[in-house]
Helix-turn-helix protein (Faecalicatena orotica), 416 residues
Amino acid sequence: MLKPLLYSIVPEETLKAMTDTFYACMQLPIQVIDEHGEFIAESGQMANFCRCFQDYLPSGDSCEKMHISASKKAITLGEPYIFACHAELNHIVFPLISKKTFLGSILVGPFLMDPADSILISDIAKKYHIPTTEALELYDETASIPLATPAKVNHISRLLYYMFANLINDSKEELKQNNQKLFQQSRINESIQRYKEENISTNSYPYEKEKELISKVKLGDVKQANAILNELLGYVLFSEGNSLEIVKARAIELCSLLSRAAIEGGAQTDNILKLNNHFLKNIQLVDTMETLCYKLQEIVESFTESLFNYIPSQNSELIKKAMIYISKHFNEPLTLEDVAMHVHLHPSYFSTMFKQSTGSSFKEYLNMVRIEESKRLLSNTDFSIIDIAIAIGFEDQSYFSKVFKKYTGLTPKQFR
């Protein structure tokens, strides 16, 4: 008999020890299934209910097929998947993959989240044409099926992830990527729906969003940068449809914009040009819309990170933490002491370290961040100059105008 593919990657005894431990703690049946959906190991007895019920499955259908289908769903989700089988019994499946190859799954179940009643059995009997006598036998067998509350099931689902995600080196990263892709696609779809509801014109590309994205990249705000990216992608898909080549063209333009923004923000030119060339080549090789959208997210994150790479390594985490704090609170009356306290350093020591690491004093850097945001507001809103000054943290228009001219060579009015 051929050895299951899974056992060539993970030792059989390791999986058996893990499933035995799970069963001892949770008292829920747990099985290891192979790439064909068949049991290759189990801890805990299969319910008699299942043995009786399997005789009534339609020809061509099987539990194994359902295991494979549920496993593929879990791979797409990037996390454990809770599902009900043919007989409405609950299971949780966690896929085991390596280099995009499905090796098998960990399957927990069957279990019920509510006590079985006659309605459940009646519905199953009607659906699968089970005679009354056998249906009554099935009802008697439900007493042996373990119960787990919905809250407990959610905890068990997370426990499976914690136990088995690191079992195969590249499996966790692959599932994580799938989960992130799914999350990104949902956000893009929300943007598309919003554009439809608001009857947004398909003829005017939202350049203000592009500028806002660049601004967030310069500030090191990855979370907001990704949110704006998804809105931009939503607009492109809304206005152009699912044309991969058109989105690729926009991606190449955006890549160039981000590389210029990174260089302007202080990143080393040689490194950015190499990064830009690497991404441009990768974009050309992408063959699905979902992968292209995810690749753009990776590009945004890489260019944002590049702005911090010039910071000496021994201080990088502290200075990055300080910069991110500044990017989130620049519109408040922020002081050196506030930021020093946030990174748990004495203000004097923090001031020296910040200057050595970034080449700018705390005050100079704070002003640069504020001016960058003011440029966005001046370009994209009708707010008065005094309102913009106050919105970005300056106390009066005169001082704002003086600082703005120092950094741009223009007054706010001239820039607008």
Observations:
- Residues 39 and 382 are 66 Å apart (CA to CA).
- The longest strand covers residues 101-111.
- Strands lie at 30-34, 39-43, 81-84, 90-98, 101-111.
- The chain has a mean pLDDT of 87.
